[in-house]
């Protein structure tokens, strides 16, 4: 597949040497971002998109540095390209989902009439084994030259959701935890072990630690929608959580379909369900 308007992976140069890779959604909703963050000795690739197109080749064209890959969480639009790489880091609570994905069925492209852009079965990254490295809150990726990226556990949207703070640049790569569009905290999963993390309360707890580092954050780069968000979103999101936890379930708008009601504070929006507010 040639690099063109139809190609699902498009490089977008960012500030201070960071490259944002735009990943077109195959279904027309939720286009995503991967982020390539260079240090002196290594580069960090944050997320691997939908698994359509040769992300590894594109990354090799963007940097000569050895690349470490990390997932912000386990959802398919962030881990699809993982099998192209030998090793992937992820928070320990989301690691089991990667092992399941490795064993998934062969991927097939939908009928051409249902695709948002041109791609074929040959462009799909197929399930395959790779090494998973489990990390926790506070883990630091040392990229050399003083470039250190710290992990902040931000559960709620997923059990092992994380944000990654490039402390030298002041850039926070927030996955789906801090986004311009709403964060979704409104569904349980079959495994009760992980449901305790899928609540507004657990999300608030993670935000409290991140908020202590708010002044280190110059800009926020999420996994979807607008990039370069202000650090005030961190406090807005924490206050949005606090209101829900205090029983303020007021709704100013709804997401389409079954995605749920939105509670809003400032620039923060949380799509919630009453059963997913407090941790039991």
Task: Describe it.
There is one protein chain. The chain is α/β, with parallel strands linked by helices and 280 residues long. It has one domain: Ribonuclease Z/Hydroxyacylglutathione hydrolase-like (Metallo-beta-lactamase, Chain A), CATH 3.60.15.10. It is 18% helix and 26% strand. The protein has six helices and 16 strands. The protein has helices spanning 55-62, 76-79, 95-102, 192-195, 200-211, 232-245; strands at 9-13, 19-23, 32-38, 43-46, 67-70, 87-91, 131-135, 140-142, 148-153, 162-166, 171-175, 183-185, 219-222, 253-254, 261-265, 268-272. A seven-stranded mixed β-sheet has the order 1-2-3-4-5-6-7, covered by helices on one side. The protein has a five-stranded mixed β-sheet with strand order 8-9-10-11-13, with helices on one face. Helix 5 packs antiparallel against helix 6. The protein is globular.
Note the main sheet. Answer: 7 strands, mixed
Low-confidence stretches: none
Q: Tell me the helix content.
A: 10-25%
Structural class: alpha/beta
CATH superfamily: Ribonuclease Z/Hydroxyacylglutathione hydrolase-like
State the shape. globular
> How large, in whole angstroms, is the Cα Rg?
18 Å
**CATH fold assignment:** Metallo-beta-lactamase, Chain A
The mean pLDDT is: 93
* Percentage beta strand: 25-35%
Briefly, what CATH class?
A: Alpha Beta
Alpha carbon gap, first and last residue: 49 Å
Instruction: Please state the second-level CATH architecture.
Output: 4-Layer Sandwich
């Amino acid at each position: 597949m040639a690099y063109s308007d139809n190609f699902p992976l498009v490089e977008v140069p960012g500030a201070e040497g960071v490259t944002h890779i735009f990943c077109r959604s195959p279904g027309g909703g939720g286009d995503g971002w991967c982020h390539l963050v260079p240090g002196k000795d290594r580069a960090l690739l944050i997320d691997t998109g939908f698994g359509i197109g040769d992300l590894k080749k594109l990354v090799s064209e963007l940097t000569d540095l050895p690349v470490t890959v990390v997932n912000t969480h386990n959802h398919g639009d962030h881990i699809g390209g993982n099998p192209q790489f030998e090793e992937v880091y992820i928070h320990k609570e989301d690691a089991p989902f990667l092992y399941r994905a490795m064993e998934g069925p062969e991927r097939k492209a939908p009928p051409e009439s249902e695709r948002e852009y041109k791609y074929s079965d040959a462009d799909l990254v197929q399930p395959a084994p790779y090494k998973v490295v489990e990390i926790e809150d506070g883990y630091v990726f040392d990229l050399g030259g003083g470039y250190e990226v710290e992990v902040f556990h931000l559960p709620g949207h997923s059990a092992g959701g994380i944000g990654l703070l490039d402390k030298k640049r002041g850039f926070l790569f927030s996955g789906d935890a801090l986004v311009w569009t709403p964060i979704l905290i409104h569904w349980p999963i079959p495994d009760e072990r992980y449901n305790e993390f899928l609540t507004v309360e657990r999300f608030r707890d993670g935000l409290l630690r991140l908020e202590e580092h708010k002044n280190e954050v110059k800009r926020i780069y999420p996994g979807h929608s607008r990039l370069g968000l202000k650090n005030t979103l961190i406090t807005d999101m924490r206050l949005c959580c606090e209101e829900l936890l205090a029983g303020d379930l007021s709704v100013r708008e709804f997401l389409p379909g079954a995605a749920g009601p939105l509670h809003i504070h400032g620039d923060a929006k949380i799509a919630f369900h009453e059963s997913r507010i407090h941790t039991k």
